[in-house]
Amino acid sequence: MTERIPAPGTRFVHAGSDPREQRGYVNPPVHRASTVLYEDVRAMEESQSDPLKRNHPVYGRFGTPTGRAFETALAELEGGHAAIATCSGLAAATTAVLSFVRAGDHILVSDSVYVPTRRFCDSLAALGVVTEYYDPEIGAGIEELLRPETRLAYLESPGSTTFEVQDVPAITAVCRSRDVVTVIDNTWATPAFCRPLALGADVVVHSATKYLTGHADSILGAIVCTEDTYATVRGAAIRLGQCAGADDVYLGLRGIRTLGVRLQQHQRQAVELATWLRDRPEVVEVVYPALPGDRGHRLWQRDFTGAAGLFGVVLDGRFGKPAVDAMLDRLHLFGLGHSWGGFESLMVPADSLAHRLPGTRRPAGTLLRVHAGFEDPADLLADLDHAFTELTTRHG
């Protein structure tokens, strides 16, 4: 009889947990530890002989049982060989890139990438690494940009702020044929809605601060690797001193348990808000791959099983910055704050072209980034209706 493969919701609940090894408790204890003591010198030397072994206690910076539980759970959910916890999402991105590049290398980076990641890639010029940004909708055409010295391609799909969906299988197939490593940021979809390793990527990075933790109370990052890439990335993380705090990885593991149901609710909220906003006279475009008619909808349907609660709204160009600022100030339930992925709704202005390639499609008006939280939709819509009506009355 073929063994039944558990559904995603079941895996979220049980991945990385073994109550038998936790004295029967459902959750692993929080190990706040640095020093590890050994029975004798031989045991210490054996443990230190290979710090890449995931279950060898060596030193707290290399990982505690709490961290291992989080890493094991995320690797299982992403379909990877192993994961590495880092102190932040940006640390996950930078560590992944630094694992593979060296002076003289050329890397390709999506033009829609998270701005702090972009700034880091720009800084690699000081180390002799050339960064070239590519149109996120390039697909297999990325082959024309590959050089003999191209070492790595960095993807983010959907793109940060502008939400372009990339043809990940096409890009990774081209890169793999030329021995170019592919790294992808999967923070938006999480393994609940997309598994990029199954689409051909070599390494997946997460800002676990966002949906994986899910409660706006932790800063955490993670890298998930294939078997071929794990030793390289893990070794680099050790050399760079990368590690995550015990409380943060515990909160990340706690967040994973409810990831499936939370993402489904974020999606329901976002679809309702995005559909309502698309019909408003103040709005010229809603940028959300889950909506039919969105530029990335076809690829989203093919490669994703759902959509997160983060999307973009473009206001009519007749509303200038003072009017939009006043509208945002009138909102009560939508907070003005960076980050996202928690239970709270947010709306912030987003400059989509400040760091983009010349010729990038310009929005017709001010772009706002919206995160749909868990407040009652009727209350959120009432808050938006009041603010938008005031916007039109005073400035329309």
From TrEMBL:
Region (Disordered): 1-27
First-level EC class: lyase
Any one GO molecular function term: cysteine-S-conjugate beta-lyase activity
Catalysed reactions, as listed in the record: L-methionine + H2O = methanethiol + 2-oxobutanoate + NH4(+); L-homocysteine + H2O = 2-oxobutanoate + hydrogen sulfide + NH4(+) + H(+); L,L-cystathionine + H2O = L-homocysteine + pyruvate + NH4(+)
Keywords for this protein: Lyase, Pyridoxal phosphate
Annotated NCBIfam families: cysta_beta_ly_B
Protein name as it appears in the record: homocysteine desulfhydrase
Phylogenetic classification of the source organism: Bacteria, Bacillati, Actinomycetota, Actinomycetes, Kitasatosporales
Name of encoding gene: metC
